[in-house]
Amino acid sequence: MADILNALTLLGNFLIIPGLTYGSQLALGALGVTLVYGVLRFSNFAHGETMAFGAMITILVTWGLQSVGVSIKPLPTALIAIPIGIVVTVILALGIDKVVYRFHRERKANPVIFLIVSIGVMFFMGGLIRFVIGPGDQIFFDGTRFILKAREFKEITGLNEGLSLKMTQAVTIVTTLVIVTAMFWFLNHTRTGKSMRAYSDNEDLALLSGIDPDRVVMVTWIIVAALATIGGTLYGLDKSFKPFVYMQLLLPIFASAIVGGVGNPVGAVAGGYVIAFSELILTFAYKKVLLYLGPDNLELDSLIQFLGTDYKIAVSFIILVIVLVIKPTGLFSGKTI
Amino acid sequence: MAAAFYYQYRNQILFSVMAGLLLAVALMQGLSVSLTILNLCLISAIMSLGVNIQWGYAGLFNVGVMGFAALGGLAGVLISMPPVSEAWQAGGLGILLGLIITTGTIAAALYTWSQVRHLTKQRYWVIAGIIILGYALLRIFFDPGVVAIEAIDPSVTGYLGGLGLPILVAWPVGALFAAGIAFVIGKIALGLRSDYLAIATLGISEIIIFCIKNEEWLTRGVKNVNGLPRPVPYEIDLQRAQWFQEWALDFGMPVDDASAVFVKICYALLFIAVIAVLLWLSETALKSPWGRMMRAIRDNETAAAAMGKDVTWQHLRVFILGSAVIGVAGAMMVTLDGQFTPTSCQPLRFTFLIWVMVIAGGSGNNWGAVLGGFLIWFFWIEAEPIGLWLMDVVTSGLPSTHWLRLHLLESAAHTRLMTMGVILLLVLRFSPRGLIPEARR
Predict the structure, then answer these.
(1) A127 and B204: CB-CB below 8 Å?
(2) DSSP 8-state code for residue A165
(3) Most buried residue among A33, A60, A118, B404 by CB atoms closer than 10 A?
(4) In the Cβ-directed half-sphere of A263, how many Cα atoms lie within 13 Å?
(5) What is the mean pLDDT of residues B426-439?
């Protein structure tokens, strides 16, 4: 019995909690990508940089708050800085839409042109971020590091394996739960949310029903910027903030959105967790788990690992390829919000 | 009047301006600096030719330029480096068995796939079973081989080495490598929505770079491969040669400088030869019936399909061709550098910059792509000194130790990313056809 509990704890500590955390971060990112796709109808390559920008503003505000001694211990200070980060990112996103995207939207440009435009925006934002905060690592976490320490868990339960829960992990999971619930309530139960869904479903019909397209686009950018800021900050809190990492996040985020069915918010959230758990399941070393579960005299030479941890990024790509080959519309075959 | 003159001689004027810029650098920063920029301009121009074949001819959006270029670079290592015989003895068998098992698994999976079409649901599980079995077998034979190879003198070799052939052979081989991967990606992503190709190529290029960084038995990974053989003479040999010393004396240059310049000119001539051949081929292809068909497909896929053209197959062909050209450029780049450094493969530096080149130069026009390659690379390199100078002027009113001035001077290097973004956005808005637009036919 103790062996089974030990094995489960091991899995919980190294697979389930990190998977939920990483999955939440991906889900927030994929939700943003999918909303842009649903309403504005292009794949937004600048989304990673938008996340980095939101996180950067939040970091700057956090530093400001820390320097005047504001603290909400045991929670990280960054949480009260997020609203200001959101406001600034929303202003930037709306400004970029007004200056850049609107022109092409009015000409009804090809989606690929939008894609290239978003790459231009990506360059610009990437440069801006590196210009302001530099390309290096930034640490802005404060507050209590662990809610539950592995050692305490061992003492309480008497097991060999410890289960630890970091503050950042708990904050990420809870925040994502709240945000996603609010998001679905907004899309399904408010007038604005319904008009967004209608616009994404059939643009002409929505226009005929008197829905103001400019307002739908504006609301979309506000939501996308807010999601990006929250997602970016949570990722930065949990791992660390480094501008180029956010560009590497683009691939798993796109993979999540496509796996779930691009344009479909439920799919985006589910896709985020699918990608995160697949990455961890395939790169987890099962040796210790098998030693607990197997017969007492079991001896294993290798780590029993499907893929080296370095190949995490390949997992999201392999899943993407499988989905593209077998079911290009994704698990929740969406195209509408 | 002036406008009419410009339109008539646009290409000549623009290329003269480019030559003038390089000349100005030669006068202000030295001939050697100017030639370094020129060589990379030529390589960039070849990469943007490759992207132009995909985007300008066919409207395919490839964001995996970096990956295809890196495959070309890998070819440079595998062809030109001398083989490490101890490593082959230690782990060569494991690696070869691994390769055979991989090929066997793929063949078995493909064959089974074609045989079990009637099983709609179960066939996925059958294929998955075959692949998992093959993968397990692969790991059993492959892993010990890798460990053995990487253990041999890791600070110097620790990899299998190459074939020891002249590095020029690597250029076509690099094209083959890139074409092979392009075939697989194209098979998967072409025929679906256009942005799926973009995302798939983004993914594959990240994975290629990750593999190259991690598979040390093949590439030494982040330890880099240095001292690739050269197709041109070494400076040190030139400096010792009697004829070269006399030559340098005639030109009135110190022998050291003269040798560096001579080597760079040799490279430039090689690259110009390649670019001339590629330009001739691309122009001929564009004017041929095949080029007309590609434009027809690009401008109206439905109409072209209705005329009996196999759109997906033609897309696949042009995607492979373009990627092969990028592969050549990648191989040329490691030839120029004389080393293979996977850490220098950054998507912003390769993929996205090449896109700025194609869009700004003029998509659909080969000369435009070449000009874009020259101009954008030139400004990418020179934006740093220009940005630094600009920041210095802007902040000259502040005391020299003011934090804002220090921060701005320190971050000046990052202005070039912003500049490239702004250039791309401006071109797309105000001159979407680029500097040398596609000819109206």
Answers:
(1) no
(2) E
(3) A33
(4) 21
(5) 88
| Nearest residue to B324 via CA among B274, B375, B372 | B274
pLDDT per position as a tens digit, B54-90: 998 888 988 889 999 999 999 999 998 888 888 888 8
Distances (CA, A) of A319 to A153, A328, B124, B218: 35, 11, 14, 26
DSSP code at position B57: I
- The CA-atom distances, in angstroms, between A130 and each of B167, B170, B214, B388, B420 are 38, 37, 27, 15, 14
Phi, psi (rounded to 5 degrees) for A138: -125, 130
Task: Determine the 3-state secondary structure of A285 from DSSP.
Answer: strand
Cβ density class B29-66: b for 16+ within 10 Å, e for less: eebeebbbbbbbbbbbbbbbbbbbbbbbbbbbbbbbbb
Question: In DSSP terms, which residues pair with A148 in a beta bridge?
Answer: A165
Arithmetic mean of pLDDT over chain A: 88
Per-position DSSP letters for A176-245, written without gaps between them: HHHHHHHHHHHHHHSHHHHHHHHHHH-HHHHHHTT--HHHHHHHHHHHHHHHHHHHHHHHHHHS-B-HHH
Q: Is B187 on the interface with A (CB under 8 A)?
A: no
Cβ <8 Å between A324 and B416 = no
Confidence of residue A333 (pLDDT cuts 50, 70, 90): low
Angle formed by the axes of helices A167-189 and A213-238, nearest 10° = 170
Q: Taking a C-beta distance cutoff of 8 angstroms, is the pair A162, A99 a contact?
A: no
Q: Which residue has the higher pLDDT, B404 or B134?
A: B134
Partner B contacted by A294 (CB < 8 A): no
**In sequence order, what are the residues at sequence separation of 6 or more whose Cβ sits closer than 8 angstroms to the Cβ of residue B80?**
B162, B163, B164, B165, B166, B167, B169, B170, B228, B229
Separation CA A225–CA A221 (nearest Å): 6
Nearest to B69 by CA among B186, B205, B164: B205
Across the range A89-95, mean pLDDT stands at 96
- DSSP code for B344: G
pLDDT of amino acid B1: 62
Domain map (residue ranges) of chain A? 2-244
> Residue B58: CB partners within 8 Å, gap ≥ 6?
B294, B297, B298, B314, B315, B318, B319
* Contact check, Cβ <8 Å, A324/B124: no
Please give the backbone phi and psi of residue A215, each rounded to the nearest 5 degrees, phi first: -70, -40
Residue whose token pair is 């064959």: B111
Task: Name the residue among A64, A76, A23 with its Cα closest to residue A231.
Answer: A23
Q: What span, in angstroms and rounded, lies between the C-alpha atoms of A123 and A52?
A: 13
Residue A33 pLDDT level (bands cut at 50, 70, 90): very high
- CA B129, distance to chain mean position in Å, is 37
> Any CB–CB contact under 8 A between A121 and chain B?
yes
Yes or no, beta carbons of B195 and A134 under 8 Å apart: no
Out of B198, B418, B420, name the one closest to residue A128 (CB).
Answer: B418
Cα–Cα distance measured from residue B201 to residue B55, given in angstroms and rounded to the nearest whole number = 14
pLDDT, position A335: 55
> A165-201: per-residue pLDDT in tens?
888 899 999 999 999 999 999 999 999 999 998 888 8
Q: Is B403 exposed, middle or buried (0-12, 13-18, 19+ CB in 10 A)?
A: exposed
Nearest alpha carbon to residue B163 among B221, B88, B232: B88
A 304-333: CB under 8 A from B = 306, 308, 310-311, 313-314, 316-317, 320-321, 324-326, 328
Sign of CA dihedral A103, A105, A107, A112: positive
Residue B340: helix, strand or coil by DSSP? strand
Q: Which residues of chain B from 334 to 353 reach within 8 Å of chain A, CB to CB?
A: 346-348, 352
Q: Which of residues 110-169 of B touch A (CB under 8 A)?
A: 124, 135, 143
CB contact under 8 A, B421 and A125: yes
Model confidence at A301, in pLDDT bands (50, 70, 90)?
Answer: low
The per-residue pLDDT for A336 is 42
